[in-house]
Task: inverse folding
């Protein structure tokens, strides 16, 4: 595939063909992590910066390992947003990082659009590792890869997202990605956690998990953020779990070959019971494995494009 | 040597022959750090995770350097235990890390037995870098190596451990290790810091440092943790130092070729005076140097076993 | 050049010839970061420790990338100074790090002279990455390199430093460095921020920025530390900016080919307006780029000298 973009900011702006290209590259790299020597020299001498302005361990580590398996040099910048507050702008910071002659900046930021701003200020490639409630493209790519790896296609699949849709960049990136491939997406959750205009993204809305779960091929559970509870968007974890938590008995009412996905880390007993998370339908650990391969593919494609 | 274990969890479960094998491998690797080019390709393409759920700088850095000198890729996970508290279990976290296709997880945890739990959940090798008050096997291995490097043997040596025996994983691992090689171990400290049933480990107990110090070949001082004082297990650092602190004048009453060890970092003027810590009998810095070689050996042996 | 020193502690003790040698080496390494493969094997198998006992992101990252572009192994030690307080001395810590057989320790410390103390305790090379209000030699080296790269010489240049001279290690290192090459240095700022005996360093003093700015070739703005304001050394950022902040209109009164430098990160609207920081006279981003090359040169020179 010929990758034509400097950055990877979101799935909204990509075509199905472009997403396809990333997933093909992912398949090639997934094999690297299964070897005894889990390393290729593809990005030898390239420099990648992990710029995480919101705390993260897993996504940061997944990108760090992806870079190392491609033989790139990677440096972590885990500044608190407060250091930016001392008179320096995000643009200043990014241009300073670029002046170190880096090839790629992987960025997480609490504000939607922050990576897009950076992408216009610097020549280095920007990979969005999560911007506010907007997009988390590598997560959606790994989800698409995982589903297609199991079922062989995305087209026509009925996908049900359950949880806090309003605040979920994971849901938003997936809705864009899956819709491009012809999946039929339904979102499900308490009214307080679903945007009133979500229909404009072409999805259906449900507030009844037990009936919706019977009619889907892929069940995607979002992580309940405890901060939301404190803001009174739902009464308690216990009440959430009663109406929107998934357990074995609920899964018994679903299709036999239903796939269960979750972006991790899971809240056992809230959105998902422990049993269900380890059941045969759960793809949660395959998502993690595939996530590393997706990030290798994305780092490789954007760094390659930077050269031409 | 043929290493047969997936993990290194403690010295209690190893035979003297197995410990011997690790120490032989250590000798081979210690030479690497004396070269101009301090690096061998032994673990090229292997991935190691430093999972430290208790704060640590030195042990973490020693493992990190050991991995780098073996050409492995290493990623640090320094999660606070609080991130685990948000609904995720330790097992979930470990299985997520393993899904990144890592070969080895080096783990420190505040709870005894945590690495043993992990070792049963994941296929990756687990190295215990300290679990609660239970074991710290690489520390005891480096101590055994250091003593044998100086004296040529462990058998028959009279070893005196001084300090907070109750809370010391260093003491516990060393007692198991040294006993297997036929050393005679005595523990010494205030009654509040020695477990009442310590005799079941086959050691003698003393509460009189000045007389015990005259009859030992190896003096091993444990670090006084200031947190203990706050819990009123002893009245003050000053009083501790008066009865159980070691200084030059106390050493004058000991054997001329006594060896003094300490796991570091030392509290100057509490368990050990500054002069004594830098005296000719002190092996403290050799312990640090040998610690890196021990960790290279352990990483090498467990990673090799993972392949077969 | 033949580099004869074990350490790089400051510019005060170097000759102009020695500084020249570092700058020549810098020129050679600057080219590496412009390649597609930004890496040379010069320090393969060497170990460098970043020991930052004061918070820092940029200088730490600049040294980390410099080490990686030279193929060295680098480990970050970012201890809080509090961990030292628990009975361990700085000397103990340094000797422990050295016992890991490291070649070079890059050190930042809040106290003037701390790296000099270390340099006497350990055989490893010490690079001062900022000690209190004393020196920050790699910053001054990159400033000298940047100016000479633009103008071709330092001799005879009129350089104006503006800001908190009292607390600035950047100013102090630069004054020593520039004076050795025959520049004429003036310092400018409120009386509370200029040491009364600064004349002993051979510099002129001004309290009137708008007149001094007309007569300089290089304008060097120091970062205003907000902590100073809290200690009432000046009334407010707004008042500081009114009398000592630089903006486009002030630059209009200066020489056309004036150079503007700042060590970063800038406080937009305090010591420098946003427009001026991005204007054609600003060398701020080139300073960052050259800083990495200077650090490669310094790491290379001191690590080489350690071998002989």
Result:
């Amino acid at each position: 595939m010929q990758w034509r973009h400097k950055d990877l900011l979101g799935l909204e702006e990509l075509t199905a063909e472009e997403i396809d290209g990333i997933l093909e590259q992912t398949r090639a790299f997934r094999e690297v992590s299964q070897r005894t020597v889990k390393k290729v020299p593809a990005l030898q001498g390239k420099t990648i910066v992990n710029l995480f302005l919101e705390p993260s361990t897993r996504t940061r580590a997944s990108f760090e390992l992806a870079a190392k398996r491609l033989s790139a040099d990677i440096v972590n910048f885990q500044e608190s947003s407060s250091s930016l507050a001392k008179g320096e702008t995000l643009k200043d910071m990014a241009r300073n990082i670029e002046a170190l002659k880096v090839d790629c900046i992987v960025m997480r930021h609490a504000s939607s659009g922050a990576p897009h701003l950076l992408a216009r200020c610097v020549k280095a490639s920007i990979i969005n590792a999560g911007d506010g409630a907007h997009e988390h493209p590598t997560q959606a790519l790994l989800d698409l890869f995982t589903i297609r790896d199991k079922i062989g296609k995305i087209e026509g699949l009925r996908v049900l997202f359950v949880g806090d849709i309003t605040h979920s960049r994971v849901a938003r990136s997936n809705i864009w990605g899956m819709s491009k491939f012809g999946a039929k997406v339904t979102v499900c959750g308490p009214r307080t956690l679903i945007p009133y205009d979500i229909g404009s993204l072409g999805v259906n809305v449900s507030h009844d998990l037990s009936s919706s779960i019977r009619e889907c091929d892929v069940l995607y559970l979002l992580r309940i953020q405890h901060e939301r509870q404190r803001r009174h968007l739902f009464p308690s974890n216990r009440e959430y779990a009663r109406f929107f938590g998934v357990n074995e008995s609920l899964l018994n009412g679903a299709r036999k070959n239903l796939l269960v996905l979750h972006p991790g880390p899971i809240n056992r007993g809230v959105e998902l019971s422990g049993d269900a998370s380890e059941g045969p339908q759960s793809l949660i650990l395959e998502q993690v494995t595939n996530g590393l391969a997706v990030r290798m593919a994305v780092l490789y494609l954007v760094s390659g494009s930077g050269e031409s």
